């Protein structure tokens, strides 16, 4: 008994010891580093827009199952009480009746089949819609993640600019104190430093804004201190336009949605056409009559007390003054409309792919030029500073050179960010989820 108690106590102690670590891991979803790939994974799991699309898909699945039930027999039951103004043969002046009827649809002009196929297509369309929503959210996450990385690089560039201007202000002040330079050089340096400090504040505020936006997209608390990590690296893109177009026409969910919309409209046309055909049902009915509420026979002959009947009924509306015909023609025109819209969607898909590839090429060329510009600007700044300190150059030369360094760095950062965004746009335009923006 004592050994059993010790064994149970050890298990409980082990579970209690592990609980804090489990609670910390499960409760703090923002723990650890958030790479771009992890951000996308989190967003696809928790973003409210995606959750709504999943519920829509789940609902259409139930609709498909409901349409299957329309092929099967239905059972109805009834219970009624009637009084009469004169004595009846079997029930007297009052009688109770209970009934059960089973109805099996036999032919409904193919409306049941078309309705089931329509619900099935709607479910497929909602699957494609979920993919489309996921791509939209993925693109927004990737774009904002790249914007965050850009904002951080802007902060680093602004900090370097402030540091250079502070250093220049010290040099100007030292020269002014010994009478080698005029007061205007100090004032110019102070103005440039104040402007750079304001730019630094804006850059830091942009970082905070992007962090809040990403937290929102990932369904994390706005106050959560999330450690987003990444860098704006450059990897050459090698796919051709033809390869991208082939993949886009095969995978884009909006094209799948358009195709399903045409097929659904065709099923609607079939449902409308069913109004031209007869409707046939088979029925089996059981009815029991009594003089009181428990349907006791109370003297009623057995043949009148209970009845069981079976039969087939058919109905056919042969004329509705053209309402059914024009209803069919309206739906038929909808099919033609949706086919044209699908073709337009296909054309726009090709344009988006082409536009994204052109943007990638443009950003790639800008990156090469901007890197050379940064290198040249830094060398010019170094030489201007050396000339000023040797008193053979002017303060304006130094400030202009420093401004060119800042501008060239901004152009490089912008080109790197635009390249990443163009990559994200291309993969979304191809209908593919490239979570980490890996370049092929």
The Cα radius of gyration reads: 38 Å
- Structural class category: alpha+beta
Shape, per Cα inertia axes: elongated
Mean of the pLDDT scores? 85
Topology, number of strands: 6
Q: How many helices in DSSP terms?
A: 10
Instruction: Please write the string of helix (H) and strand (E) elements.
Output: HEHHEEHHEHHEHEHH
Cα separation of the termini: 66 Å
Strand content: 5-15%
Notes on the structure:
- The structure is a single chain.
- With 440 residues, this protein is an alpha+beta fold.
- Helices cover 68% and strands 13% of the residues.
- It contains 10 helices and 6 strands; from the N terminus they run αβααββααβααβαβαα.
- It has a 4-stranded antiparallel β-sheet with strand order 2-3-5-6. Strands 1-4 form a two-stranded parallel ribbon.
- A hairpin with a 3-residue loop joins strand 2 (74-88) and strand 3 (92-107).
- Helix 3 runs antiparallel to helix 4, helix 4 (111-177) packs antiparallel against helix 5 (183-217) and helix 6 (241-251) packs across helix 9 (323-389).
- The radius of gyration is 38 Å and the shape is elongated.
- The two termini are 66 Å apart.
- The model is unreliable at 5-9 and 11-27 (pLDDT under 50).
Map the helices and strands.
Blueprint: H1 2-27, E1 33-34, H2 36-46, H3 48-69, E2 74-88, E3 92-107, H4 111-177, H5 183-217, E4 227-228, H6 241-251, H7 253-273, E5 279-290, H8 302-305, E6 306-315, H9 323-389, H10 395-429
Parallel strand pairs: 1-4
Antiparallel strand pairs: 2-3, 3-5, 5-6
């Amino acid at each position: 008994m004592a050994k059993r108690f010790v064994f149970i106590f050890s298990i409980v102690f082990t579970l209690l010891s592990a609980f804090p670590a489990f609670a910390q891991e499960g409760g703090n979803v923002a723990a650890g580093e958030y790479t771009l790939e992890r951000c996308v994974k989190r967003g696809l799991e928790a973003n409210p827009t995606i959750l709504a699309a999943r519920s829509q898909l789940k609902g259409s699945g139930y609709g498909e199952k409901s349409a299957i039930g329309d092929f099967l027999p239905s059972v109805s039951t009834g219970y009624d009480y009637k009084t009469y103004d004169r004595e009846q043969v079997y029930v007297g002046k009052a009688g109770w009746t209970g009934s059960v009827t089973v109805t099996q649809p036999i032919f409904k002009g193919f409306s049941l089949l078309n309705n089931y196929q329509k619900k099935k297509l709607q479910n497929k369309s909602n699957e494609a819609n979920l993919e489309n929503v996921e791509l939209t959210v993925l693109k927004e996450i990737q774009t904002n993640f790249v914007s965050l990385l850009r904002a951080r690089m802007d902060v680093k560039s602004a900090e370097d600019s402030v540091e250079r201007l502070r250093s220049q202000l010290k040099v100007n002040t030292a020269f002014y104190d010994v009478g080698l330079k005029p007061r205007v050089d100090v004032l110019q340096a102070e103005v440039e430093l104040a402007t750079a400090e304001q730019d630094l504040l804006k850059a830091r505020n942009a970082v905070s804004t992007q962090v809040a936006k990403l937290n929102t997209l990932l369904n994390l608390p706005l106050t959560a201190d999330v450690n987003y990590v990444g860098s704006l690296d450059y990897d050459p893109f090698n796919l051709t336009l033809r390869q991208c177009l082939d993949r886009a026409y095969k995978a884009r969910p909006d094209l799948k949605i358009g195709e399903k919309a045409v097929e659904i409209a065709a099923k609607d046309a079939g449902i409308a056409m069913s109004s031209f055909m007869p409707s046939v049902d088979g029925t089996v009915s059981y009815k029991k009559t009594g003089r009181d509420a428990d349907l006791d026979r109370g003297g009623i002959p057995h043949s009148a007390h209970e009845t069981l009947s079976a039969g087939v009924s058919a109905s056919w509306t042969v004329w509705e003054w053209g309402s059914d015909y024009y209803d069919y023609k309206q739906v038929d025109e909808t099919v033609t409309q949706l086919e044209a819209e699908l073709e337009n969607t296909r054309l726009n898909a090709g344009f988006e792919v082409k536009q994204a590839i052109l943007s990638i090429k443009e950003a790639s060329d800008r990156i090469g030029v901007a890197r050379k510009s940064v290198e040249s600007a830094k060398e010019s700044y170094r030489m201007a500073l050396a000339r000023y300190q040797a008193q053979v150059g002017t303060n304006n030369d130094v400030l202009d050179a420093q401004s060119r360094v800042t501008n060239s760095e901004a152009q490089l950062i912008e080109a790197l960010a635009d390249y990443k965004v163009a990559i994200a746009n291309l993969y979304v335009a191809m209908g593919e989820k490239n979570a980490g923006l890996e370049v092929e």
